Amino acid sequence: MKLVVKKFGGTSVGDLGRISQVAELLRKFLAENPGVGLVVVVSAMAGETNRLTALAKSLVAEPDPRELDTLLATGEQVSIALVSIALRQLGIPARSFDAQQAQIATNNRHLEAQIEGINAAALNAALARGEIPVVAGFQGVDEEGSITTLGRGGSDITAVAIAAALKADACYIYTDVDGVYSTDPRICRYAKRLTQTSHEEMLEMASLGAKVLHPRSVYFAMQYAVPLVVLSTFNPERGGTWVVPEEELVEKAVVTGITYRNDEAKISVHHMPQGIKSFNLVFSALAEQGIFVDMITQAGAADGTTTVSFTVPDEASSKALALMQALVPKIKAEGASLERDIAKISVVGVGMRYHTGVAAKLFEALAAEGIDVSMIATSEIKISVLVPRKFSEVSIRALHRAFIENQPEIALERGAAAV
Amino acid sequence: MKLVVKKFGGTSVGDLGRISQVAELLRKFLAENPGVGLVVVVSAMAGETNRLTALAKSLVAEPDPRELDTLLATGEQVSIALVSIALRQLGIPARSFDAQQAQIATNNRHLEAQIEGINAAALNAALARGEIPVVAGFQGVDEEGSITTLGRGGSDITAVAIAAALKADACYIYTDVDGVYSTDPRICRYAKRLTQTSHEEMLEMASLGAKVLHPRSVYFAMQYAVPLVVLSTFNPERGGTWVVPEEELVEKAVVTGITYRNDEAKISVHHMPQGIKSFNLVFSALAEQGIFVDMITQAGAADGTTTVSFTVPDEASSKALALMQALVPKIKAEGASLERDIAKISVVGVGMRYHTGVAAKLFEALAAEGIDVSMIATSEIKISVLVPRKFSEVSIRALHRAFIENQPEIALERGAAAV
Questions:
Q1: Full-prediction pTM beyond 0.80?
Q2: CATH code of the domain occupying B252-419
Q3: Contact A70/B98, CB-based, under 8 Å?
Q4: What are the structural domain ranges in chain B?
Q5: DSSP assignment of A89-104, as one string?
Q6: Which of A177, B159, B248, B274 is the most buried (most CB within 10 A)?
Q7: Is the ipTM of this complex over 0.95?
Q8: What whole-number distance in Å separates Cα of residue A268 and Cα of residue A337?
Q9: Is A3-247 CATH 3.40.50.2300?
Q10: May I ask the CATH class of domain B3-249?
């Protein structure tokens, strides 16, 4: 039997009108696809998780995590009941499943639990009876029977995990946008919706700031080779973007997307005497304080000293600067500085594995606009650069033009390293 | 180990301030009663169940009962989490239990499920670890693992059932009044709070309109001989009313309370030719339509005909009248009439079992005020009369004066019939 999982986010079930819309969408799908099995996964109504969190936090600054999870899980429980009620009204034999009923087992790390397994028996039995299970996203049950939640992007993870457990043919992620774009359409009017992308590209794009899917759910889908479809609840006929295993891509574009993030800051420690020990002190000081470091570069000077620069989340930047300033006398550096007006722009594409010249083309495109790049970082399928934040939009448009609007003419060298 | 169950209703946990108040009340109790085991049962925050019901009903006029139960159960789940969070903040090792976790098994009659058993193992294990279980009232789980709810008064029933299952020493019902009164204090300024009453008296008073406890929970407590204490969340030091097995009553008052209800209407079918068949037609017509009949009287006339009168819930009275009018030609009665401006006043007390003259005293008290009684019904421990609704307050005050303010001087006849 063909089987699909369809997941609806908080905006898609944000009010009763939208819940009715989701029910109608599913009725149409079932009518047009007789014999196809369907499992529905839903998030809490938009705003509900925040409302519940605020409720707990106005009682206590740091609510007990187990109890906070019990509280938050009611958000999805409300949604599964309302969606099931709306479906049954249309004559569809829906049946709600909370995490206990769907047998979604997690570890006991409350607020950011990880799914350890789904016993597919209960959902399979419902499917065999011809029912449409409507499963609460975002939640699980630990070994002791306590309710857990999965953290940000949790409902997507639930949907992907169920698709993997039931060996579904695809997992549809319905959201408020109609797919994944080659870049942010608000910045670049020529941004185009991707028909296809690979899990790995999507993972890079998700991590780099495309807000459509949470990296953890993409990672999960990649691990279990679950095809994802991202599409709009409100315009499902537009088709959306398929996220598939790389080998199934029809076309391997050199650059699939241009992403950006403006929430990092750059810190430099200037003119450190060279030596591994100073490096070690810098990064272990940051690690001890739980500060996440993203890009790192170093540059040697003629006097034998080294300047090391790195990026950290903007919200941690003052703390990071203070740590570095405290370290300056100890490692005999000249000083430490913080630069906050930066943006990180990335070009992503699996085709980079097989093409050279991407970095050259990138620098050329930015140089033509008079934009200096202050840091660069690469992986097999992406190149990220740091530019002044005021040039963020200009950079995105220039790179989109160079790599996506004008098809790149770069020599194919199978197996060659990227860049 | 001494063990008590304490249940807090919707008003008691109606907002965050009140939840903190409940937590403080419990902290004080634990500090003053070291070594006493405690299980807390809570309702949904006041208004929440109505809000959730309205949400479902604005989707669909008649929501699927299983799904409505899943929806409604979130109300108590929010409460157990918030109360546990507030208690843990005070250093009390609280732990929330939903119905699944507390192992409250019910039948599958959604929206009015009945508790079939509580496996005390989980709660006992928590108590043995020194924890304070905070259990969701009003809900259970059926054989299939579906969430059920217990209907009106459900949280009280949960509390009593847990007290029975754990063999607790008492079940405290915290509410927004400070106990059970001898009559409605808004009507009679001399109404006095009862220190003690029996389950059976309470059951009569609950059924007859005292809104403090739901009859089902009192019935449950009577069956399992669980002592109940009704008291105010906001003035717990006032002490409240104990509801105990009759044999434990210190004083068996002839009349413990005067209750009333204004939500019934009286229907008469006039001058029916006598015969069991007509009676049968009258009451089976009502039963077929699910109309609940309360008091019934019949009076024979000199011409050999009978007039039968009965009371029904006011909301069903028009329907009942129409049924009777349709029946009039068939049973050759003279006509049917409806009287809506009536009130039912009852005097209740276990002492009636052992005293005569209560009815006489009742008629005398009402006659002294010039009030005619149109119907009368009796049980072992109560007498109910129907009076014109405009005389409702006057009747209550007169009976309160006669039976409660002035201690009755009635000859004791052990074992004599009431009335």
A1: yes
A2: 3.30.2130.10
A3: yes
A4: 3-249, 252-419
A5: HTT--EEEE-HHHHTE
A6: B159
A7: no
A8: 5
A9: no
A10: alpha beta
